[in-house]
Write a structure and sequence with these properties.
Layout: H1 7-27, H2 33-38, H3 42-51, H4 69-84
Amino acid sequence: MFPAISSRAGARLARCLAVWLGVSLLSACAATTPDWDQRFGQAARATLAQQVLHPEAARNADPVAGMDGRAANAAHARYQKSFAEPKPQPASFTIGVSGGQ
């Protein structure tokens, strides 16, 4: 079934397999974690920093200018009311049909 291997070739094959096995086992002990740990989270921190428009905005003690209290209160009330009384949605089967509205 299998071709006959001479004892010399068999010994060479066994030696190659033993070396391969030894190298494979020793490569599992290689320490790569310190390299990865040094840069852990660096991409996430860089992405977060790029999303901040004004990094010094938290230190600004001035209030937001441009809208008085009454207008802001009315806008907030309309916003809250839009969730309390949602507009009725049209039926999905009337899309593309002339409804005369």
